[in-house]
């Protein structure tokens, strides 16, 4: 197995047809399975339809690469930094380096927990209280343009107060491409506060499941003044019912753009993973948005497997700040001859390119599940087609 440190091969020039992709400590060859196998066979002067022991070693090598440097599971842990930012936020936590640095870190703890944290909690409480009271009062008014305008004012004010509670510094780019009413805004997903970041610059119709407790109170107050789309648990399992309600919302060109995160889970601010095709079957105009957080000032990624919401918000409110760039991309529509999966991949690639993120085809659902048998069978069929010498068209990966 060829395992090289990143700085060993940064300047190396691949001479083969396959492109070398550097991710972590593994030097990976890009391209499809057929292209990699063809290159391997040419190197050993083998015919395309002959079996060789080197084929077994090829898959053995791929398996070891995944164990050493898995492309998927590392997207669900905090992004490591080149240098420490005086926060206990790296995967290795605090390590003693020097007395001076320890004193500086201690002063930082006092400032973050003793000064910034109480102020941020106060602002967050004010923002959420205003959201509940303001939206409830606006909901009493009859339907009119004045009600819509007041609703937007209340929502924007609340989200901006909450953003101050996180010390968020947001830079918006290409504002002329901001999502319009009757459209669908799709974005990469790093944290639940992505909603707060985007809603600071415009109002959106939220999509989600109905909750109880405090979250339920907030949801019920919000929907009184603005047509958000909340689903019961039973409805969320009915794909056709969800699609039908979203299509009806988009068809009403006067309603706010729907905000959707097609990945379905939070990724650690380094990559964009597979977009579920459901968001792209609704129809209408897609407004892509790329979000990129600066990890030097605070770790915005929510690892839901490690931290609950309360502990996560505590980490966020005791960070130095949340620094983020938001890019509005030009609107995109389904092209002739393009299906929902291809459309989703095209939008995902545009977001990844703009945000400087790695574009991955893997399903974010692997955070909690295993690789589907259909994907394993697809790889087996592709290899068997090489052995028997026939070109069998590979089936499209199953999307949800």
From TrEMBL:
KW Cell inner membrane (keyword) present: no
Primary location: endoplasmic reticulum
One Gene Ontology cellular component: endoplasmic reticulum membrane
Sequence intervals crossing the membrane: 97-115, 121-141
UniProt-listed Pfam families: Acyltransferase
Subcellular location, record wording: Endoplasmic reticulum membrane
Keywords tagged on the record: Acyltransferase, Endoplasmic reticulum, Lipid biosynthesis, Lipid metabolism, Membrane, Phospholipid biosynthesis, Phospholipid metabolism, Transferase, Transmembrane, Transmembrane helix
CDD domains given in the database record: LPLAT_LPCAT1-like
GO terms of biological process kind: phospholipid biosynthetic process; triglyceride biosynthetic process
UniProt-recorded Gene Ontology molecular function terms: glycerol-3-phosphate O-acyltransferase activity
Domain (Phospholipid/glycerol acyltransferase): residue spans on this chain: 183-294
Pathway, per record: Glycerolipid metabolism; triacylglycerol biosynthesis; Lipid metabolism; Phospholipid metabolism; CDP-diacylglycerol biosynthesis; CDP-diacylglycerol from sn-glycerol 3-phosphate: step 1/3
Keyword Transmembrane helix applies: yes
Topology within the bilayer: Multi-pass membrane protein
Taxonomy, superkingdom: Eukaryota
Family: Belongs to the 1-acyl-sn-glycerol-3-phosphate acyltransferase family.
Designated name of the protein: Phospholipid/glycerol acyltransferase domain-containing protein
Encoding gene, per UniProt annotation: gpat3
């Amino acid at each position: 197995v060829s395992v090289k440190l990143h700085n060993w091969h940064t300047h190396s020039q691949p001479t083969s047809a396959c492109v070398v992709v550097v991710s972590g400590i593994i030097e990976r060859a890009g391209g499809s399975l057929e292209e990699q196998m063809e290159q391997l066979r040419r190197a050993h002067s083998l015919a395309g339809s002959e079996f060789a022991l080197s084929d077994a070693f090829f898959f053995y090598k791929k398996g070891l690469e995944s164990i050493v440097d898995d492309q998927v599971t590392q997207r669900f842990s905090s992004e490591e930094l080149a240098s420490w930012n005086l926060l206990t936020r790296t995967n290795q936590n605090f390590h003693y380096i020097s007395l001076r640095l320890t004193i500086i870190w201690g002063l930082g703890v006092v400032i973050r927990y003793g000064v910034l944290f109480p102020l941020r909690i106060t602002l967050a409480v004010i923002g959420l209280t205003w959201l509940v009271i303001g939206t409830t009062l606006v909901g009493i008014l009859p339907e009119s343009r004045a009600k819509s305008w007041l609703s937007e004012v209340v929502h924007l004010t609340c989200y901006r107060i909450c953003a101050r509670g996180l010390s968020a510094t947001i830079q918006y780019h290409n504002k002329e491409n901001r999502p319009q009413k009757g459209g669908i805004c799709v974005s990469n997903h790093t944290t639940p506060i992505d909603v707060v970041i985007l809603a600071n610059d415009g109002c959106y119709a939220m999509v989600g499941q109905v909750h109880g407790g405090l979250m339920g109170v907030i949801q019920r107050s919000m929907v009184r003044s603005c047509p958000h789309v909340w689903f019961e648990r039973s409805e969320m399992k009915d794909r056709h019912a969800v699609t039908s309600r979203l299509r009806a919302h988009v068809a009403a060109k006067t309603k706010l753009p729907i905000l959707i995160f097609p990945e379905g889970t939070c990724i650690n601010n380094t990559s964009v993973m597979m977009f579920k095709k459901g968001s792209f079957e609704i129809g209408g105009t897609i407004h892509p948005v790329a979000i990129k957080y600066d990890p030097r000032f605070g770790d915005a990624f929510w690892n839901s497997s490690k931290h609950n919401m309360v502990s996560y918000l505590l980490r966020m409110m005791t960070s130095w700040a949340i620094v983020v760039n938001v890019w509005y991309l030009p609107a995109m529509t389904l092209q002739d001859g393009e299906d929902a999966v291809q459309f989703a991949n095209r939008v995902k690639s545009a977001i990844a390119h703009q945000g400087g993120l790695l574009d991955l085809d893997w399903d974010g659902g692997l955070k909690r599940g295993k690789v589907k048998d259909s994907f394993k069978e697809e790889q087996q069929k592709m290899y068997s087609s090489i052995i028997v010498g026939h070109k069998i068209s590979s089936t499209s990966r199953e999307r949800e």
